[in-house]
Amino acid sequence: MPSCLKVHELTLLQISNICDRGFLGPHKCFQVFSPLLKPKAVNPYATLLMLFLNAAAETEHMSKTSDLKTFKSNHEAAMRRLTKYMPLDKAFMAKIRNADDLGRKPEFLARTGCTDFFKDWDSYFNTFMKDAKLPEFAKICGLVMKKNHTLVERWPFRLGARATQADFELLRPSGFSGYERYMEFERAE
């Protein structure tokens, strides 16, 4: 849901997952919400904060058929990184006779659910931005992407290269996926 906050003359217009194509989509959000931002002359801090919950994952899903090699490479790299935080039990793996055995093991399911924290979502989100022509459409609506985020990290729930075990354990039961992507826009003038 959209929300407006005014904190110390900083006006923030936040729109959550309605930005994804499965909901209103980015273009409709630009059209509806860009007129609500004050001009820079009135408020130089006015920001439209958009959350994309599914854009990167949906783009990855589409790439499984169009670029299987990159998809597999990204997934394998994520699995290797996950092993640092959730080591693979070799005794457990030795007992697996077929795919049905995996589905009955909560340890394996828990491990599978954590892979997304470690994937390179940038390439998928960049593909989404290019396909949706986000910069061009933002410009039509009088907006530009902020070069540097000032409110929220672009990928606040992705585990970076220096993530600790405590970071992993905190994020694991959170319900976040790692592919939540924020974008900040401001008036072009």
Structure write-up:
This protein has 189 residues and is an alpha+beta fold. The protein has a domain at 3-57 and 121-158 and 172-187. It is built from nine helices and five strands, in the order ββαβαααααααβαβ. It has helices at 26-33, 55-66, 68-85, 90-94, 99-103, 106-114, 121-132, 134-140, 165-171; strands spanning 3-7, 10-15, 47-52, 143-145, 181-187. It has a five-stranded mixed β-sheet, covered by helices on one side. β2, α1 and β3 (47-52) form a beta-alpha-beta unit. α2 packs across α3 (68-85) and α2 packs across α7. It is elongated. Residues 4-10 have low confidence and may be disordered.
Q: What can be said about this structure in brief?
A:
The chain is of the alpha+beta class.
